[in-house]
Amino acid sequence: MPEPVVRKTALIVEEIFHEGGPAAETPLRRAALLCVIKNPFAGSYVEDIAGFMDDLKPLGVDMARKLVDALGGDPAVVEGYGKGAIIGTAGELEHGALWHVPGGYSMREILPSSNAIVPSTKKIGGPGTRLDVPVTHCNASYVRSHFDAMEVGLADGPKADEMLLALVMTTGPRIHARVGGLKASEIKGEDGLR
Amino acid sequence: MTARIRKLVTVMEAVEREAGQAVSPPAVRVCCAALVANPFAGRYVEDLSELIAVGAEMGSLLARRCLDLSGLKPEAIQSFGKAAMVGEAGEIEHAAAVLHPALGAPLREVLGGGKALVPSSKKMGGPGDTLDVPLGHKDAAYVRSHFDGMPIRISDGPRAGEILIAVALAPTGRPLPRVGGLTHDEITGTDGLR
Asked: What ipTM does this complex have?
């Protein structure tokens, strides 16, 4: 399988101080790393695509490292994560599914407490298409305060023969989280759920 | 600080390939945008000096955020630009108050200079609207390879009583410039034009 050919990367950091309520002492940060690569399967139906997952692993790890660096370099500050992909119009949704394993693997490789499944979404789209990447707690999926999402996208991609890969990390709960449920302080962190 | 900030979003984009050609070094653009409360939303106020003070604070803060995220040194920056988008309960003159009287000086102070006019743009808009921040060479406005722009978009702002204020910086011009004109290497850099 071919090595991923990167055309463009984007690093996005949001700092959220408040949303109409009391301003937080430490803002919630959400960070996304986007990578636009050539889709090696664009334009034709290819049966055997699974090998490309291995080729994407080093790229994924590099993206995850850059995200942690953008959040200050300490993986312990990361409390939530998510991943997603937008496949250009000459590809198919199944090509986005190639990102599940390497996208999740890369972040769990780097983050110390990451037993939870990495929530994900994907779609077919073009330049300017936006993707709402779901986010949940890294170590216990049921932590209600950390159910979140980050909207990402680029004006100039993905083109028809490209795919946009996204990783998202967050540093805490929604800024005014107050709808109850399992708290981050209450988790056991064994099964990835609670 | 005068400005009441709800959210800061910093984006760095790097183009490594364009039209199949390698871009070396990659063409990089960084933008930081703030969603701030508009103190004059919903009413006509003659004296806009509070927003002028907000502009001064943003010139410094947004430029610093751009440098922090990108890791670029001030002396590496070749281009700059600024823009504002006013939520529906404000007026376009509020963008002018933020951008024109006082934002440029602290921006130039962060960068260690900048002889050229800071190119700017403004509009009224709502959540999810795209603001295209113009970019131009910071010491010589006629450098053709550096005429550029960077889109910024925040899904949840500006709300009616907010203003989105953005500064963009770049250490390079466009990815594959080839339409002639004055180049970065040819400038005198004394009059802000050539």
From this structure: 0.90
